[in-house]
Write a structure and sequence with these properties.
The complex is a heterodimer of chains A (about 625) and B (about 140). Chain A has 3 domains: about 5-210, Aldehyde ferredoxin oxidoreductase, N-terminal domain (Aldehyde Ferredoxin Oxidoreductase,  A, domain 1), CATH 3.60.9.10; about 240-425, Orthogonal Bundle (Aldehyde Ferredoxin Oxidoreductase Protein, subunit A, domain 2); about 435-575 and about 585-615, Orthogonal Bundle (Aldehyde Ferredoxin Oxidoreductase Protein, subunit A, domain 3), CATH 1.10.599. Helices cover about 40% and strands about 15% of the residues of chain A. Chain A has 26 helices and 17 strands. In chain A, the strands form 4 sheets. A 6-stranded mixed beta sheet of chain A has the order 2-1-6-3-4-5. Chain A has a 6-stranded mixed beta sheet with strand order 8-7-12-9-10-11, sandwiched between helices. In chain A, a hairpin with a 6-residue loop joins strand 4 (about 85-90) and strand 5 (about 95-100). Chain B has a single domain, classed as Alpha-Beta Plaits (2-Layer Sandwich), CATH 3.30.70. Chain B has helices at about 20-30, 60-65, 90, 115-120; strands spanning about 5-10, 40, 45-50, 70, 75-80, 100, 105, 125-130. In chain B, strand 2 (about 40) and strand 3 form a beta hairpin. The chains are: A alpha+beta (about 625), B alpha+beta (about 140). At the A-B interface, helix 7 and strand 13 of A face helix 1 of B.
């Protein structure tokens, strides 16, 4: 048996590129990594922990930081919605674990080029890009791409290296090391969170162009295909499928508005006055020309949007729910064309719309309260667009905004931190946690800072019966969005499962919007792909292992339990109106139970027993 | 040869490329888009499908010097044994990308002998089966 015959589902190789020395090496993928950490996000944290044993002293923008592109065992296969991949690093925005995850076709192409992981180490003095064709890996100059946006950079590299080439790159924001800089792949898919684009910029890595011709082998192709078809059926038969495949995440805007949790005016209220313009129907009818899919996805929730309006003329992948809020309802813009345009600009500059829109809205509120000399009005679309530009190029006030919301709030002072919607230094996503308490807990404890995708406990929002709440999580309150009881146990299950899904690199929609695909399905898919003996219990244990290793990394970076928190606005300021009027997040009631079921000590560290149980050696 | 032909409606394609994956798995037992007899390329605001259209008057058959590309029931069929990889069929084919050579083999769709995997797994109406006379490809 030759080396490459040993791997099923995986390609069996790690590519390492050291930019300081120019050294390029290929290493076999350790079996221990596959059997304990699955892939993708799990590989990311395990490799990050090994490569940065003393992370507290690591400057995120220095040569000692690493940037890890990792795929999972389902990438490249026809497994539903398996087009995602993860980038892991130490985040300059938060100073703790930074990872981001994206769809498109780039992740699959890494596999077809013969790798599971690409590790970028060191730092270059000149801007360059990596060109990867199977075994041939070149470090090429990128002077002609300097300052270019995502669209031009991608087009130029595909033109140069052929139409089978997939490109991941940074725009001006990444080159300028803005703390909300994203990495874009396939033009319209973004590794947006945690400022991973700034780390790529610090290494002077403009892009990775990749194309592969390798075979991906499956351990049991017949069973794998059978299971895949079964999962397709479960997804398409779910009641959410028709709307989600047609309108995409825009349907969540409708749901958030109905619940009174559509974050408006920087979260001052959850009732938004312009839903007639923002509804999924209005958006689809007025702007969307077609649906698009990521690699191997039957849901095709992406949309191509065209704005004809002269002032905001643009065409490209349209905003998702998060962006409708971040650049729309949070700064209170009454019409969609400037929102779609601002989204397009963020895309081309390569920036995270959640962070950008969050920081702009925060600044608007500081202006409203007279805390800063600049004058901004809610609903001022021109100001939003101007500030997007200034952030990308670090001009004027944009240079301060580019350092993140927490930095800005510390600088402005005057109690502005109370309404700075961030956790652990990362700007919080769209959904107002006062209308879903499990979401609140999930945001507070998320291992990459203010993020909803670590837990995504939609279970509390989907109108399940109390009996189902008892059956799933042992508590009837888990189906009541306003209740805090039982939520710690529910969030823990979601977090462990999300770690599995992110590590296999499937899209969370299949599980967390529908509960159509469950842990046993994931175990079946990964087992048939890899031949590794996964079952439901083992795979959820792997999820828990990943969560705990992330925690250890963060504690080593200096994280304390005080950081597991939410802005005062969500904890103490009741929603002023709407269906959730008066609601706050009772975080102090959920956190002790969460620590208890996690097996974490008062200092925030996992207990020795928990680490032993999970087989983590420190 | 199949009595039902594949109907292609490119405007319905969302670009998931599942057809490429099931095609290569069916024919080679591995997943590799480069081995697929159907390819999908994302253009700016649409997806382009490249595969054999089973023309009424196939130019590839006329161009083939060895008879590897030949007619069966009026449709082009490729015989690997007789193929010398000269590429004449590729040049003659009016559909760019429909025929390709990869690793010493000419790749041409055979509709999986009448029950094409790509049609089975296509999540939209981009690939469907139409009866022989109805088939209109866009």
């Amino acid at each position: 048996m030759t080396e490459k015959d040993k791997y099923f589902g995986y390609m069996g190789r790690i590519l390492r590129v050291n930019l300081t020395t120019g050294e390029i090496t290929k290493e076999p993928l350790p079996r221990e990594l596959m059997e304990n950490y699955i892939g993708g996000r799990g590989f990311g944290i395990k490799l990050l922990t090994d490569l940065l044993p003393d992370p507290a002293g690591v400057d995120p923008l220095g040569p000692e930081n690493v940037l890890i592109f990792s795929t999972g065992p389902l990438n490249g296969t026809m497994s539903p919605s398996s087009g995602r991949y993860t980038v892991t690093t130490k985040s300059p925005l938060t100073g703790i674990l930074g990872d981001a995850n994206s769809g498109g076709a780039f992740g699959a192409e890494i596999k077809f080029a013969g790798y599971d992981v690409i590790i970028v180490e060191g730092q270059s003095s000149e801007l360059f890009y990596l060109n990867i064709r199977d075994d041939v890996v070149e470090i090429l100059p990128a002077a002609d791409l300097s300052g270019k946006g995502i669209m031009d950079t991608t087009d130029m590299l595909v033109e140069k290296h052929g139409r089978d080439t997939k490109v991941a790159c940074i725009g001006p924001a990444g080159e300028n090391m803005v703390f909300c800089a994203a990495i874009a792949n396939d033009k319209f898919h973004y590794l947006a969170r945690c400022a991973v684009g700034a780390v790529m910029g610090s290494k002077k890595l403009k892009a990775i162009a990749i194309n592969g011709t390798r075979d991906l082998k499956l351990a049991d192709p017949d069973e794998f295909l059978k299971k895949t078809a079964d999962c397709y059926r479960k997804i398409t038969e779910d009641k959410t499928y028709p709307d989600f495949s047609y309108y995409g995440t825009a349907v969540i805007t409708d749901i958030a508005a109905e619940s009174g949790g559509l974050s408006t005016r920087n979260g001052q209220t959850g009732v938004f006055d312009h839903m007639d313009k923002y509804s999924s129907h209005a958006y689809r009818k007025d702007f969307v020309t077609r649906s698009e899919s990521c690699f191997s996805c039957i849901i095709h929730c992406s949309n191509y949007a065209v704005v004809e309006d002269k002032k905001y003329k643009c065409a490209g992948k349209g905003p998702e729910f998060e962006t409708f809020v971040a650049l729309g309802s949070r700064p209170d813009l009454p019409n969609l064309p400037p929102v779609i345009y601002a989204n397009y600009l963020c895309n081309d500059y390569g920036m995270d719309t959640i962070s950008v829109g969050g920081i702009i809205s925060f600044l608007f509120e500081c202006s409203e309260k007279g805390m800063i000399p600049e004058k901004y009005e809610w609903g001022d679309a021109d100001a939003v667009i101007e500030l997007v530009r200034k952030m990308a190029f670090r001009e004027g006030i944009g240079d301060e905004m580019a350092k993140g919301m927490k930095y800005l709030a510390e600088k402005i002072g005057q109690g502005s931190m109370d309404f700075a919607l961030q956790t652990k230094g990362m700007e919080l996503p769209a959904y107002d946690p006062r209308t879903g308490k499990g979401f609140g807990l999930g945001l507070a404890v998320a291992s990459r800072g203010g993020d909803h995708l670590r837990a995504l406990p939609n279970f509390e929002l989907l109108s399940y019966t109390p009996e189902e709440g008892v059956k799933w999580f042992g508590d009837p309150h888990t189906v009541d969005p306003y209740a805090w009881q039982g939520k710690a146990d529910m969030v823990l299950w979601h977090e462990n499962f999300a770690a599995v899904v992110n590590s296999a690199e499937m899209c969370m929609y299949c599980m967390f919007a529908t509960y159509a695909i469950l842990p046993e399905d994931m175990a079946d898919l990964i087992r048939h792909a890899t031949g590794i003996d996964w079952d439901e219990k083992k795979i959820m244990k792997a999820g828990e292992r990943i969560l705990n290793l992330e925690r250890l990394f963060n504690v080593a970076c200096g994280l304390t339990p005080a950081d597991d928190s939410l802005p005062k606005r969500f904890l103490e300021e009741g929603l002023p109106e709407g269906p959730a009027e008066g609601q706050t997040v009772e975080l102090d009631k959920m956190l002790p139970r969460y620590y208890e079921v996690r097996g974490w000590q008062e200092d925030g560290r996992p207990t020795k027993e928990k680490l032993e149980e999970l087989g983590i050696t420190v | 040869m199949p009595t039902d032909l594949r109907k292609i409606q490119a405007k319905e394609c969302v670009g998931c490329r599942i057809c490429e994956l099931v095609c290569s798995l069916k024919h080679y037992g591995v997943i590799n888009p480069q081995r697929s007899r159907i390819r999908v390329y994302r253009l700016e605001d649409r997806d382009k499908i490249e595969t054999c259209r089973f023309c009424d008057d196939p130019k590839c058959v006329d161009a083939c010097p060895t008879g590897a590309m030949h007619l069966e029931d009026g449709r082009a069929v490729h015989d690997r044994e007789k193929c010398i990889l000269c590429g004449a069929c590729i040049e003659a084919c009016p559909f760019a990308g429909a025929l390709r050579i990869f690793e010493g083999e000419l790749l041409k769709c055979d509709l999986c002998g009448g029950d094409p995997e790509c049609v089975k797994y296509c999540p939209t109406d981009a690939l469907t089966l139409g009866s022989f006379k109805e088939v209109k490809n866009d």
